[in-house]
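job 3f2a | input accepted
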Amino acid sequence: MMELTKSLKCCGKIHFSELFPSKWSGFIFVAYMTLFVNQGLLVTASQDSNNGYLYNTIEAVLATEVVKLIVSIMLYTKDHSILSLVADARMHSKVMYHYFVPAFLYCLYNNLAFVNLSVYDPPSYYLLLQLRVVITGILFQILFKKQLSGRQWVSLVLLTAGCMIKQLPLSDNTPQPLSQLTTDNADVVIKAVDKGTAPLLSFHMLLIIVQVVCSCLAGVYNELLLKSSDGEACNIYIQNIFMYVDSIVCNVVLLAWQGQLPVLWDSEAFFSLFQVK
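job 3f2a | predicted structure (277 res):
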């Protein structure tokens, strides 16, 4: 209890040198938050009037993994040669097989994002996703044998309370669609939030939980890989390359499982990813 009290007293004393140790840390943090939030808004804005998608969502996830793979290769070859990349990949090929676990989990997470955003509005979706902070904290404490501080537990409790309050039925009145409360010049906003809130206990809530668990397990497993002896000996960009190669394989398998493999060589399906409504 004393630890919790001390943490609360120190909450106002934030040392930015600890939060952002390098000059790029702040920029990376802001860029990550911007991209993370806008991803959900853009996915929602790309939906049709029935909250469906005019493109293959698995192919969209696959395309992003290909882009990330290319960027990782470019970052590695900035300081190393292609021959060095091949040599390092062969030397640490065992690490690539380990990365199939988080790659599979992230594959499910990324594809479920499209499914869940077709049911939940972006604010509800992101608020529910914050449950992964709680689960990650618990998994981190169990697997790494490290106790979280009082300040960290206060943060987790506040996030959990926020997620619970957001889903409580505080009124018996049926929420009015935002499309009836906004003007015609806000079409994108209407598409982003003009959908009913799913019940607290529903199949879609189960999918949210699956998505949260996938994210938590993948993050903790990835941390274990980075701190393992094999991970510490392997270049971080090589590990990223392994991750994205494995993720590409997982998405291709998912396409094959759903009988949608032909979209890979369908130019019309590919260019539909770049169409703006």
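job 3f2a | Residues 1-12, 171-194 have pLDDT under 50 and may be disordered.
job 3f2a | closed
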